[in-house]
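Before relying on records like the one below, remember that each one covers exactly one chain. Contacts with other chains, cofactors or solvent are not represented anywhere in the record.
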Amino acid sequence: MAPLKLRLLGHQAYETTWHAMQAFTEGRDEATPDEIWCVEHPPIFTLGRAGRREHIHNVGDTPVIHVDRGGQITYHGPGQVVIYLLIDLRRRSWGIRHLVSLIETAIIDMLASYHIEATTKAGAPGVYVDGDKIAALGMRVRKGCTFHGLSLNVAMDLAPFARIDPCGYPGLNVTQTSALSHLNDPIQVERDLLAHLTHLLEYDTIETFQTLP
């Protein structure tokens, strides 16, 4: 299997990262190694392809952008781990549902290592703790390859979620690791989650970078 390229990108503007994902996916071929990008975004609401405006309430001056991932409305901001998975599904003979299941399992396993019991919900991608959403998933498949990915709340201001119907569910509560344990360092959470992800995705060789392609 081709080696994984891991990009630890730090604080990045959402649109810059999104357009870089699009360009990477459009330009890759069957020999292009998969990539995983880890970022933290400034405050922004993103609305998926099927997103409906009625799920957006009083967002104030925080930008709202319509993007090409699946899913409804969500929020990104400082203190949240965001991981984008640019994976060639055809090379592995995987469907998108299998990949989503692996991602959810990685999050649940990582949280379990900190004694946080998390679960999935049928028909509602993501990860939940006592019914509150702690991680959101939204992906796009183009030419058999994925982009976009997951966000996991660690130690952030959760107030903006009250200005939307998170993931299109009115009244859905959100939570974060810092409210459930001593796990309040996004860098540590990112590192631990990456370990679980790369193990389940069976990458043997990982090259690390700190810039976009």
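The radius of gyration is 16 Å.
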